[in-house]
Design goal:
Largest sheet: none
Helix content: over 70%
Structural class: mainly alpha
Distance between the termini: 36 Å
CATH class of the domain at 20-36 and 55-252 and 284-423: Mainly Alpha
Shape: globular
Number of strands: 0
Number of helices: 24
């Protein structure tokens, strides 16, 4: 369906009018990306270097990589699509649905991850619950990363399609080849250093687009006036209660869904157990740096809505296709012009940016897509190599064997992502597609994780049975919504599915734990909060970790105060 829409865009002469200088800028950017991958390759001499950067990176690098890995195609295209359809309530994905969980990861959970020296989140599950839960988590995580990588790849290819007019399948293969090249060359180090570069390129691309767009609509007040008069009305200008986003039709239920479904289950499930993010923090050179990584990332995360959601709102009232067809899109129909909400950033670039600046903007957009896909691939190759292949297929091979395997698995993951890119192409709003995936995979994992970390009585059997039950319940809720049994619109279905998965996982895990035998307490030290000596959770505050501005608790407090202020203002 989406493939056809892209061809409609191209046929309607909506291709971006790039000039030679734009192509020169893009070529320079791609050369730089591949060069970073080649240079990072020289520092890869072991599997630990390839998969975890040798645990040697400073906090500011891992912090920016942490947020850049999330600032991918889905974040930019999906959040701007939400800006078109729903407006300011989309900020909940940042201020409610990200930052509290990021602070919790840095303050509470990173000491367990980093201190235990595990190489992945599934490996933590292995130590806490044993092999069945480990294998279930490893397979589900690897599957999720391939599906999400496919979504990033599809959006990356759609830009190439609109820019060059290449067939979508050619665009997908070329885009995949570039990401594969630098990820397979330099492993996690190449991905992280490119993510830092990509963060600055993305900001350099989207900030001018936002400023130029606001000037065009007459500033903030001009945007307010135009949005109020557009389909959806002034509900798009207030973040609370967000009825249009959740589709619940009841303000109390909408707030409950946002706070519990998004702010607690989906958010904490994603940010605290998703190895894509945790892997960046685990590459840090010290416990203090690992704890600061997500907190440092929270500072720019607070401001990202202003360069991804606001452009979507501007596009909704200035791009002719949206002015004509927005009500059709809100009703879930196919726009006569062929556009979807996912096209917002591209169409705004087409209308607002001159040549030269367009090249920078396109580089930023492509950078975001590659950052997201590279993050998915680097975490996929780690989990598949360590948690599936090494644990259950080839256990005692040399380190060089696993290094070579990691590069091969990166290539295999890329091929699989090409396949899942066509699955993602069927979604009119890519963010909805991703939120559904998170409700399947992350929400039950968080329930298992948090119960196992704070309840020593939870048993190994409960670990894997709870995970499977939670995932099955989320998929059941989604299937019921697709069949029309649950009449929800907007993105509320993912909130309901996530909440259901969490509750079912907890209930099943408690019931199974009470009927089965737990591990001896001696085996749970460092894995369960009450059994872990508090000294082992503390970090060094000397040398590179000294100074008040390097205190994780203080930094987290500052972020929390600023986030509360933003929620009050908007």
């Amino acid at each position: 369906m989406e493939v056809g829409r892209l061809h409609v865009l191209a046929d309607a002469n909506l291709r971006l009018d790039a000039s030679p200088i734009d192509y020169v800028l893009l070529a320079f950017y791609f050369a730089l990306v591949l060069g970073i991958g080649y240079m990072a390759r020289r520092s890869v001499s072991s599997s630990l270097d390839f998969f975890l950067s040798g645990r040697s990176l400073p906090a500011w690098v891992t912090g920016l990589a942490f947020i850049s890995a999330n600032l991918g195609a889905v974040e930019i295209m999906g959040m701007s699509a939400n800006g078109v359809l729903y407006g300011l309530p989309t900020v909940h994905y940042f201020w409610i649905g990200a930052i509290p969980a990021m602070l919790f990861l840095g303050i509470v959970m990173m000491p367990f991850y980093y201190g235990s020296k595990v190489r992945s989140v599934p490996e933590f599950m292995l130590r806490r619950f044993g092999k069945p839960a480990h294998l279930v988590n490893g397979i589900s995580f690897a599957s999720a990363q391939i599906l999400i990588a496919g979504a990033n790849l599809f959006l990356l290819a759609s830009v190439v399609n609109l820019l060059l007019g290449w067939p979508l399948w050619v665009s997908i293969i070329v885009a995949a080849a570039v990401v594969l090249s630098y990820t397979a060359l330099g492993g996690l180090s190449a991905a992280i250093y490119n993510e830092v570069l990509q963060f600055f390129v993305i900001v350099a691309a989207l900030l001018p687009l936002t400023i130029v767009g606001l000037v065009k609509v007459g500033g903030w007040q001009g945007l307010v006036d135009k949005v109020t008069a557009s389909p959806g009305g002034d509900a798009q200008l207030h973040s609370w209660p967000g009825d249009n986003l959740t589709g619940f039709g009841n303000s109390f239920l909408s707030i409950l869904g946002l706070v519990f479904g998004l702010g607690f289950v989906l958010s904490f499930g994603y940010w605290t157990t998703n190895f894509v993010e945790v892997q960046r923090a685990m590459a840090s050179k010290s416990m203090s740096a690992a704890r600061r990584t997500p907190i440092i990332g929270a500072f720019p995360k607070m401001l990202v809505p202003f360069i991804v959601i606001i452009p979507g709102m501007i596009a909704a009232v200035t791009v002719s296709e949206y002015v004509q067809d927005k009500q059709v899109l809100l009703d879930g129909g196919d726009a006569p012009s062929g556009v979807t909400a996912n096209n917002a950033i591209l169409l705004l670039m087409r209308d607002l940016l001159p040549n030269g600046m367009l090249g920078v903007a396109l580089a930023g957009l492509l950078a975001s897509f590659m950052a997201g896909m590279a993050a998915n691939l680097s975490s996929f190759n780690t989990v598949f190599t360590y948690d599936i292949w090494q644990s259950y297929v080839k256990k005692n091979e040399s380190d060089g064997y696993y290094l070579r395997l990691g590069r091969l698995v990166t290539a295999i993951g890329t091929v699989l992502a090409i396949g899942t890119a066509f699955i993602a192409s069927n979604s009119g709003n890519i963010l909805t597609y991703l939120q559904d995936l998170f409700s399947f995979f992350n929400a039950p994992l968080f329930a298992t994780f948090i119960l196992g970390m704070f309840w020593k009585r939870m048993t190994p059997t409960a670990g894997w049975v709870g995970l499977v039950s939670g995932t099955a319940s989320a998929i059941t809720v989604w299937l019921l919504s697709q069949a029309g049994v649950l009449g929800l619109t907007g993105q509320g279905i993912s909130f309901v599915a996530a909440g259901t998965a969490f509750v079912v996982d907890i209930a099943v895990s408690v019931a199974v734990s009470l009927a089965t035998a737990p591990k001896p307490e001696a085996q749970l030290v460092g894995l369960v909060y009450s059994l872990t000596p508090k000294e082992s959770l503390k970090h060094d505050e000397t040398g590179d970790d000294a100074g008040w501005y390097r205190k994780p608790g203080l930094l987290a407090g500052i972020v929390l105060i600023l986030t509360i202020a933003l929620n009050i203002i908007f």
